[in-house]
Amino acid sequence: MKYRKLGDSGISVSEICLGSWLTYGVGVEADSARACLDRAFDEGINFIDTANIYGRGAAETFLGSALKGRPRDRYVMATKLFFPMTDTDKGLSRQQIAKQIDASLMRLQTDYVDLYQCHRYDDATPIDETMEALSEVVRSGKARAIGFSEWSPKNISDALAVPGTVKFVSSQPQYSLLWRRPEAKIIPLCAANGISQIVWSPLAQGVLTGKYKPGATPPAGSRATSDAMGGFISRFLERPVLETVAKLAPLAQEAGCTLAQFALAWVLREPNVASAIVGASRPDQVSDNAKASGLAIDPALFAKAAAIVGELPA
Q1: Could you give the C-alpha distances from 17 to 131, 139, 189, 208, 289, in angstroms and in order?
Q2: Please, are residues 115 and 11 in contact by the beta-carbon 8 Å criterion?
Q3: pLDDT tens digit string along 293-305?
Q4: Domains and CATH numbers, the chain
Q5: Residue 273, SS3?
Q6: By mean pLDDT, which of 36-45, 54-63, 169-178, 222-231 is the weakest?
Q7: DSSP character for 24?
Q8: Which pLDDT does position 71 carry in this prediction?
Q9: Could you read off the pLDDT of 1-44 as tens digits, one per residue?
Q10: Residue 85: phi, psi to the nearest 5?
Q11: Interacting residues of 156 by C-beta distance below 8 A, sequence separation 6+
């Protein structure tokens, strides 16, 4: 496993991050989830990403229990806030940030998180208030660093302009061979300001593993067949997308790796990407994904892949 610095924070994170969206505490049974977590550590993964909204606290609660007893300095824990936990508990106000960090720490059974992230931008709260409150979280020792997810260039620039506050070190956008929007503005802006990308859905909800075939029924037990985990995959299951993904398989074969490893190595080719978040319901998936770290793949193969995907309608 290779490691990269998380922005200007000095925190080193594994190139592969184990995520918990839709999985742990929600769609994956506890024993299987624990086995995945154990395998992640065996593979050298030190970075775990979650959020208070995942299972309305269930993911954090699971991780707090499963990580109990492990040395706290052996892993990097990231969580988030923004989405409604109750009818009144939502957003990025000073009050909510103070309340939600304490609730997350209690569920995670830890004194601090390494990275505290704004899950989305809060138009209802002045950015000065949000940045000052996040800075207090860092200064109080409850978080080592702060980040954001799916903010616009203006959101980012406005935050960076707030004087006397702790600066962001990470951005968490959706990014994959099938979703390249951050390349135009987000990645250049972040790279210029010491902010790394932690990318979510680098395998496009599992479609870039090649498991879903054009015109075929989704495999039993896959995310597409799960009521708990399949709500966000439909846009990647359209026939033109699956036919395009099928054309990528020979490139992965030529590179000597699985299609999943090829897709993960593709996002990691970008220097501003610190880590790629993967979900897993089985330990073998964790191991397969971990092997993408450090892969040396001919850039010409990546160029061919981008050209193939570029033929999809926008």
Answers
A1: 26, 26, 23, 17, 10
A2: yes
A3: 999 999 999 999 9
A4: 3-206+269-295 (3.20.20.100)
A5: strand
A6: 222-231
A7: B
A8: 96
A9: 999 999 999 999 999 999 998 778 777 888 999 999 999 999 99
A10: -90, -30
A11: 148, 168, 171, 186, 189, 190, 193, 195
Q: How far apart are CA 40 and CA 60, in angstroms?
A: 17
**For 192-229, what is each residue's pLDDT tens digit?**
999 999 999 999 988 999 988 876 666 655 555 445 44
* 159 in Cβ contact with 128 (< 8 Å): no
Backbone φ and ψ for 147, nearest 5 degrees, come out as: -150, -175
Nearest-angstrom CA–CA distance, 139 and 79: 17
Could you please report the per-residue DSSP string of 59-86? HHHHHHHHHTTS-GGG-EEEEEE-S-SS
Q: Do residues 150 and 174 touch, judged by C-beta distance below 8 A?
A: yes
pTM metric for this prediction: 0.92
The single-letter DSSP state of residue 235 is G
Tell me the HSE value of 228 on the side-chain side, using a 13 A CA sphere. Answer: 14
* Strand bridging mode 76-81 / 16-19: unpaired
Stretch (H or E) spanning 210: none
Catalytically annotated residues: 54
What ranges make up the beta strands (E) of the chain?
A: 3-5, 12-14, 16-19, 47-49, 76-81, 113-118, 143-148, 168-171, 196-199, 273-278
Judged by DSSP in three states, 225 sits in helix
**Checking DSSP bridges between strand 143-148 and strand 12-14, what pairing results, if any?**
unpaired
